[in-house]
Sequence to fold (448 residues):
Amino acid sequence: MKRSYGIITIDEDKCQGCVNCMMSCRTEAIRIFEGKARIVTNRCIYCGKCFRDCPEHAITSRTHGLEDLKNFKYTIVIPSSTIYSQLPGEREPNRILCALKALGFDHVYEEAIGAEEASIATQEYLKGYQGPYPLISSLCPAIIRLIQIRFPHFVDQINPIDLPAEIVAKDIRKAKAKELGITQEELGIFYLVPCPAKMVAVTKTETKERSFIDGTISIADIYGELMAALREVREEEGLQKASSAGIGWAVKGGEIRELEPRRWLRGDKESIVVDGIKNAIKVLDEIENGKLRNIEFIEARACPEGCVGGALTVADRYVSRGRIRKLMLSHGSESVVDRAEVVKRFKEGYYFFEKGLKPKPFAVRLDTDPLKAVEKMKVRDEIHVSLPGLDCGACGTPNCRAFADDVVQGKAEITDCIFKWREGVKDLAQEVMQWAEKRPHSLPKRGR
Ligand code: SF4
Ligand code: SF4
Fold:
């Protein structure tokens, strides 16, 4: 049986309830119930870490596939720059783009061009930005969701410049439909993504009424077909246009690299690149607690090494990082986009989110009645201190504190803790022994 949680699916026939996913999830979004993993969706940031850490490959995500191309008269794919690092033996981006076209798309436009536009737009935004600091990159949707859930007061500090792929789709949608003489609905724009977070950012966009992209396809899903297409591809000239300025966004530090050297960031302040959710939480915690100060800009990526480490990629993240770096060296660093045009559009508001992001704080709500909630809080704390504090996960909850929350909310029973269960059995055994010692007074005493 398969159980869906938005774009994530858990195949319960494969899931062995081994708790690996639960222990690896940094936002405590997984519980094990009746031997199967379940996702608490309002805690999930769609990072995909659990996909990677499930030894049974029971957790997956998908929104669209190549079969969806037939629903449109003309189709376009916008590949994440990560694709340039995924195919062993193939280093030539133009051939990769040609092979993508051969899978059935009518045209291909690089996400990296949108990244170059986003770089310039962010540079312009920083010129007039007066705080609050730090400004936080909007590139990684998993980090955005982490902020919405866990650091909601930082939501207004997220850079309001749109995702590179959305910028590309916006650039081409209207113009291409007009050029082809078809309606915008007949034009299908697909985004080839490295992670579930980008799937959600597009299919459930919160920054506009409707995404400029019609569907997302994961790199892992088309990997085999793409490898086959590469063997026979006939190369066309000039599909690949982006420079290292945009391609570099596939790895951690790629975004900030375009802000620092030209001094778009202030010299008297620091900028930070952080990768991995655990590290991002630590940095945001330190900023919140005033331990890290004077930071102007943060580029935070949920995946180690950046998008090359995305959960829906195929190649080793360190090898992929090396491939992107080599590509950056062999490609010019001068952006191919028309800077004056981007600045003009920036001033017209073209690159900004159409709707502001909203905080979505995850707070354990013990009761709707405040007085009862305070009572339950006391009970929860008593339960918590009575637990062994081993955070072993055997109860199907990631740690003892989360288990105490679940018990007081009626989502778990105290005997789900193996230690509490053993204590209960011991107490019961002692009680049985005491009862066994008792005899009705009408009977003769033992030994007579
Ligand atoms: S996708 Fe990430 S946040 Fe969601 S359940 Fe998996 S590990 Fe946790
Ligand atoms: S770092 Fe990149 S691949 Fe990983 S979750 Fe964020 S956007 Fe997706």
User: Anything to note?
Assistant: The radius of gyration is 27 Å. The mean pLDDT is 91. The chain has three domains: 2-61, 66-347, 370-437. The pocket of iron/sulfur cluster (ligand 1) is lined by residues 25, 27, 29-30, 39, 44-50 (CB under 6 Å).
